[in-house]
Amino acid sequence: MSWAALEWRHIARVTFQLQSPLSLATGRSSLFYDNEVFTDANGLPAIPGTSLAGALRAAARLHGGDERALFGHESGGKDNHNGGQRARLSFSHAVIHDSNDRPAAPLLGGAQLNDALLSAARAHVVRDHVRLDSRGTADGAGKFDRSSVMAGHRFTFEVELEAEAASWAVLDQLIAWMNHPAFRLGGRTRAGLGQIKLLSYQARAFNLRQSADWAAYGALPADLSKPAVGLQARDIPKVQTAGVLTTTLKLKPMEPWIVAGGEGDADIEPMREARVVWTVSGRGRVKPSEDSERLLLPGSSIKGALRHRAAFHLRALRGIWADHAPPPPMPHNPDLDPWAARDGLEALFGQVHGLQEGIKGDGETEGEAGIAGCVYIDDVRPKGKTKIRHHVTLDRFTGGPMMGHLFTDNPVESDEITLSITVAPTRLLPRDVWEAFHRALEDITEGRLQFGGGSGRGYGWFRGDAPVWSGEVEPVLERAAQMEEQE
Question: What does the alpha-carbon distance between residue 203 and residue 210 come to, in Å, rounded to a whole number?
Answer without folding.
Answer: 18
